[in-house]
Amino acid sequence: MLTLILLLAAIVGLLVVMRREAGALPALAVLAVTGLASLVAASAVLGVILLAGAAVVAAAGLPTLRGKWLTPRLFAMFKKVSPKVSDTERVALEAGSVAWDGELFTGRPDWQALLDARDDGLTDEERAFIDHQCSVAAGMCNAWEIAKERADLPQELWDHLKRERYFGMIIPKAYGGLGFSAKAQSLVLQKLAINETLMVTVGVPNSLGPGELLLKYGTDEQKNHYLPRLADGREIPCFGLTGPRAGSDATSLPDTGVVCRQMVDGQEVLGVRLNFEKRWITLAPIATVVGLAFRLFDPEKLLGDEEDRGITLALIPRDTAGMEIGRRHHPIGSPFLNGPIKGKDVFVPLDTIIGGTEMIGQGWRMLVECLSIGRCITLPSGATGTARYAIGWSGGFARIRRQFNVPVAEMEGVQEPLARMTALGYIAQAAVYQTANTIDRGEKPAVPSAILKSQLTEFQRQILGDAMDIHGGKAVTLGPRNYLGIGYSANPVAITVEGANIMTRNLMIFGQGAIRCHPYVLEELAARDADDLQAFDRAFFGHAGLIFGNAARALTQGLGLGRPAVPFDGEAERYAQEVARLSAGFGLCADAAMASLGATLKLREMLSARLGDVLSNLYLTSMVLKQWHEGDKVEGEAALLHYSCQLLLGRAEQALDELFDNLPHRALAHLLRRVVMPRGRRFKRPHDDLARRIAQAVSRESALRTKLLANTWSTDDGAQPNPLAQYNALLATQERAEALYRTVNKAYAKGELPAEALHPEQRIEAALEAGLISADDATFMREREARVLELLSVDDFEYDAFVTDKSKVLRHHAA
């Protein structure tokens, strides 16, 4: 018995030391004390084993001992197996900053640090702009007219955008811009997401483009000239990066610039001769100034000794000789202005280089640093805004659409997708807002930007698919009445641009995060590059302590022991603890994958993607918890919190499960599964009861529906009709209508109304005549049914309306 007690004491003591990452001395003390006690009072065999373990810990854990024999050998091995980091990768790794994403790699996330990043809200000016100017812009949009008749925004909308300085949201007031916060910029784009062409048109100039590049890197002369003109719309910018052979691998762009001298207006000018071919450039057809990325060469060494000067950025006026611009691509589902740019032997002076000659060769760093912020805002905000509108439309439609004498919102087959899309929208709102808040507090979230771009646009794909299913025939028939179909067909654009989701998920999230966010990997690589043995010793054995700590935390918390204290209320507390548990498991698995696969992990993209999925879902859960903690809760929101967190944590566990199934080192995979999930998976699909409650709330006039639809255009005061406002108006009188439906349908079922009264309108008149409802009720229902029928109706057209060449029309029944 004493032997067993001492063994348990040694195990418990080591687990405590490991969980706290207390270091070698406490572990050595635990083993030495229990080992000596075993030798004296219990089992000599156990005592020898424990003391041998103490010797190993001393040799490997005490710096003075390991530095003489172990560290040099490990350092030599690390130099051989550690991945080489190219200059391009190094720039990407060094761009941006690390915040909560880094905490999730530690296995012991500091929740208070997350909550300390308080939200200061919006200014009165920002709120007024969203409430008023954005409503005006949204009210000018007719999706059918923009997509099918104009292939552009109407002139009055362009005038409004320029006059109200939408293109200058990120430009400071000193240069004539709006100087909005990241949160305000995000909420503007969410409201404008009622039309994807409008959202893209406003979003892109405020994302990766000349404005942000000039702000951060431009010369004073460039800023003073261009920023006021960009802010008020006198200049329309575009940025040319991608091309036929340079998409995801933008650093391999074949577009070139050669430093040379050329006679201009009788004077010799030092400049650059450009040859380029760009594709998929948003706003290119109407741009007045073109940002351009190219590889600069100086064969005559006019600027110095280097011939290959690297990726460089320039700002070129539209009317520059030799540049071809103005043709259009036809993006799927949406006519936002997008097209190619070509240039052959285009000469520009050196002062067109953004930032001047000092920024030659710094183009890739400039782009990556800007993208870490812009990618957090534009497409994630568009996806979130789309979710808000889709939830509002789908909830309203499901309530007014009746089948089998009941609203389809009462059918569980509809409630399931309605609840799912609502949860994804709720998660997206929290993630994009809280990440924008970190930007406003000075962070440049590189890894979260990849998470938000890929995850939220995938959410958008799911949400729009669910919305299409709920709407059925209403959504698959295009025409002016269809508010959903054009946006649905345009969704692949968001999936593809600003880093295609396949690349982002498989290469970027974990690939960048594993080095950038890990507490020790970047230090180890830096020590290798500097050939610094002491720095390597500190980083490597700190890393080893983290591995043991995460193993102990994952195992004990997986067994339900030692749950960490978290600063959340009862509804959210459990989920924060589960995030901490899975964070420890994720950190352990990340280190195991890197250690077992080494540099080949880069090539095992499916494994990297699953690790990225774990990180993504833990990050999104954290943002939901922070939003819940800080926000004003409304009735029904707790069900949405539970559904959202269970969905995300279930996805994280699923990704770990698949990782264990596919790790090539099977013994390691089995060990990791036992440590990380000793009791199996904790989370599966959210319960049906939660789905029913959520679907009921968002398909009725409720506090939860109102909260989810905040920052949408929900009033009927625009130049174009607003289906969302129409649904809201019908839901406001839904209870009265439901009571009358029950009265009329019950009477019809009993035979109290004529059998031929098959239409609702006929039954209303028959019920009025029979004295079952009042004249006031009949008037109410007549008006209501007319509005319902209009919202349920679809469009039809002349037989040859969609034929562009009328000579090819087949007249099947010419007679």
UniProtKB/TrEMBL annotation:
The keyword Flavoprotein applies. Its EC number is 1.3.8.7, 1.3.8.8. Residues 361-501 form the Acyl-CoA dehydrogenase/oxidase C-terminal domain. It catalyses: a long-chain 2,3-saturated fatty acyl-CoA + oxidized [electron-transfer flavoprotein] + H(+) = a long-chain (2E)-enoyl-CoA + reduced [electron-transfer flavoprotein]; a medium-chain 2,3-saturated fatty acyl-CoA + oxidized [electron-transfer flavoprotein] + H(+) = a medium-chain (2E)-enoyl-CoA + reduced [electron-transfer flavoprotein]. Coiled coil: none annotated. Belongs to the acyl-CoA dehydrogenase family. This is Acyl-coenzyme A dehydrogenase. It comes from Halomonas shengliensis.
